[in-house]
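Task: complex structure prediction.
Instruction: return structure tokens for all chains below.
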Amino acid sequence: MEDCIQTISDYAFRSIGFGERILPREGFTLCQQFTLIGSGMIWNVYFGVVALVTGFFLATAVAVGKASDNRIIHKLSAWFIFLFRGSPLFIQFFFAYFFFLSLKGQYAFFDPFTAAWLGALIVLFLNTSAYTGEIFYGALQSIPKGDIEAADAYGLSGWPRFRRVIWPTMLRLAWPAYTNEGIFLFHSTTLVFFSGFPAWQQRGDALYYASFFADKTFNPFVPYPILAFYFILLTLLIITIMGRIGTRLNRHLPQDAKPKFRFRPQIIR
Amino acid sequence: MACYLTTGKHMGFYVSFGTVLLLLAITAPLALSFGFGGAMAARSPFAPLSWLGKTYIAIVRGVPDIAFFLFFVIALDQGIEVLRHYAKCPDWPDTIRQGNDFIVCQQAKMPLGAAPQWVHETYGFMIAVFTFAIVFGAFAANVIFGAMRAVPKAQLETAEAYGMTRRQTFWRIVVPQMWVYALPGLGNLWMVLIKATPLLFLLGVEDIVYWARELGGTKTPRFTDYPHGDWRMWYFLVLLVFYLGFTRVSEIVLDRIMRRLTKGQATAAGEAQRKAAA
Amino acid sequence: MKNLIMTSAALALTAGMALADGHSVVRMGTEGAYAPWNFLNDAGEVDGFERELGDELCARAELTCEWVTNEWDSIIPNLVSGNYDTIIAGMSITDERDEVIDFTQEYTPADPTSFAALSTDVDPAAGVVAAQTGTIQAAYIADQGWTLVEFATPEETLAAVRAGEADAVFADDSFLAAALEGQEELVMLEQQVTLGGGVGMGIRESDTELKDAFNAAITSMKEDGSLNALIEKWEVASTFE
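Output:
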């Protein structure tokens, strides 16, 4: 037990460079595996949260762009969505790393872009923006006509109409699908160090440490289920938080009309 | 150049596109049936069955597919061999786990140790299909479960009024009606499935990513007739075009199916079709 | 797992009744991405030092052998779980691995590990060193406390040095020598380190008969000098005395 507390204090923040420098070399106890894989989760949560929050804004812009009457804006948004939804993240990471590497050779400004914390984040940000943009676009298309007519009747137009009527309704309609997208995004953060970006000083995400242990113990049946356990917890957490927000978005609706977990035939990822 | 593109390795590369397409073609219906089974179990009035269905959906959906692929395949392979071992060699004196080794009797090996290579390949491929189907079956179950609940209540009540039993209502009303609600979700699942295929190499199938990496890597003159630098970018570009094209074709086909299914349905889109026709 | 499209080498005509427990076909697991040890040739077949060695060993042990490739990461779990019968993939004999599987005697002496960089005056201790994830090389750099950057494949470690992302790459001498051949960008540093033991074939702990058969075959190749000849032909390591 004391050993375990020692292990936790040594390795809890190993993934971001604090604590013991040398990874465990022997024993590979459950405690070590839980601590290090958990430490790696810091990265998964970081990538997921930052990409989801920043991606939300670009997604709104892209969705409005795709619904726009302006041909150029529409085409640009539609192509952006197609490119990022139509290709595997695996390949996006590959090209992004190549691209940033060659930019870095030209301009010193791009130095941090080949590091996962920024480079991979940008890819995940663009990727989730495209998927969420498509979800939001679908929601925009299915906003009840009556809502918009009512806004017109109140004399709302332009930005206030968007901000106070269209946008909240869009979010409400898109929320269940958006929750799914959130879950998928957190899952895809495991690809960052697995195939896309290099790990520096053995600081990696949960999957990096799980495969470290699988490699050392030659037994995949312990570390990967631990990783799965952490992700199931994370998924439950996302569902709870998004559910809370969803309830808040729907709070003005009559009680029995509140879709609790009602299915919406829309774009999930 | 023509010779370079027709080396045995390149042939492997071309064949792997077929492998990926074949995998998709087999996995999709299998995953759909897993999804249907999962959704039916989750809806079941019999509590343990419903609990089982819901656990399957929740757990498999909660785990990143890479993590699942990394250990599940070995587990599945060993599981099958253990079952065969107990069936075929009941008198086996040794334990299956000997230290680090996993040993079953020769007759229980899947496939048999002496089987030709193509049997091993096919078996590996089937295991990959099964793993994909389990993962995507959970997502499909979630979509179908939702779609079954989206069938308008009034229709179920009408069925009851006509004196249909629970079972009849399910098969004659719910199942035919739910597809229109499930299709957008299933269509997207298909898109996700396409984009999960680069992970096939984790399951030991030599897929297009495996070959693109292998062919694109720097080659020195000592080991090949066609030395070249780091060409991975070009090979990955081919993959990118393949995936974009495949996605586009899928979008068009799904769009057609959706328009077909919507016909005569009590949905907004169905309403719009009626109005357009009138 | 089991792999697609591999070459089958029907070698010995005496279809292996040599081993009692039914190894009528011995499946040889390799990686196929580590020239000159093992790699895929233009025809897509396993080729290299270990292919030639393995075929000769099977002939001497009167076994029918078949070649299979598998990802490096899961190469040991798949051996243990019985998906193939041997690992012949340039695998150094280490204590860690020896706890899980058995090794035959070594068929090449320990190969030194070298650095390659853009110029000869790079000091690995002061710069960034690239290595493949999960190799003994990566572990060594981490233990030294040097700045380590890990990539999924050996190809990417070389690309990183060319692009200036890392200052040096740390890998087996024979692998670097082969990769550096015919190009002028990267050069070998003089500094070398010896890690691990020699290279041997990995075999399940319970498969003692197979291990004995291959051990005998390796001994006979050592005695008549054909093993040294092979090592020299493929330039994989120093020869046995």
